[in-house]
C-alpha cells in the first residue's frame, strides 16, 4: 500500500474529476481531457500521477490509450482511515471518561478554598 502517492493523487481537483469520470467506465485520454481548460500535455501529467498511485490502468490499442479506474488503492485508503478513526475514537473516549471521573472527584471534594 502506497498511501503517499494515493493521497497526493487525490489532492488535486482535476485528478479527482478524472477519477470521477472513470468511475462511469473506461475512456480515451482525449475524452478525459475534453472538459478541462488545460492542454492535453497537462492532462497527461495528471494521468501519470494517477497511474503512479495505481488508481488508473492504461491499455494501449493501436494509437488509442484507454484508461480505466483501479479501486484497490481507494480501498487501502479506506481501511487505513477506518483503522485510525477507531484508534482515535477509542483514545478520545478514554480521555472523556478520565475527565468525567476527575470532575466527579472534584465535585465530591467540594468547592476550592
UniProtKB/TrEMBL annotation:
Chain segments annotated as coiled-coil in the UniProt record: none
SMART domains (alphabetical): HTH_ARSR
Signal peptide boundaries: none
A GO molecular-function descriptor: DNA-binding transcription factor activity
InterPro entries for the chain: ArsR-like_HTH (IPR011991), HTH_ArsR_DNA-bd_dom (IPR001845), WH-like_DNA-bd_sf (IPR036388), WH_DNA-bd_sf (IPR036390)
Domain HTH arsR-type: residue ranges: 1-89
Protein name: HTH-type transcriptional regulator
Amino acid at each position: 500500500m502506497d498511501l503517499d502517492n494515493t493521497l497526493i493523487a487525490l489532492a488535486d481537483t482535476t485528478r479527482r474529476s478524472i477519477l470521477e469520470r472513470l468511475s462511469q467506465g473506461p475512456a480515451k485520454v482525449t475524452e478525459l481531457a475534453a472538459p478541462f481548460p488545460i492542454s492535453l500535455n497537462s492532462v497527461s501529467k495528471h494521468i501519470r500521477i494517477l497511474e503512479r498511485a495505481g488508481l488508473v490502468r492504461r491499455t494501449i490499442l493501436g494509437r488509442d490509450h484507454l484508461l480505466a479506474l483501479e479501486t484497490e488503492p481507494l480501498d487501502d485508503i479506506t481501511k487505513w482511515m477506518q483503522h485510525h478513526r477507531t484508534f482515535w475514537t477509542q483514545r478520545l473516549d478514554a480521555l472523556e471518561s478520565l475527565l468525567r471521573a476527575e470532575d466527579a472527584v472534584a465535585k465530591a471534594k467540594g468547592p476550592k478554598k
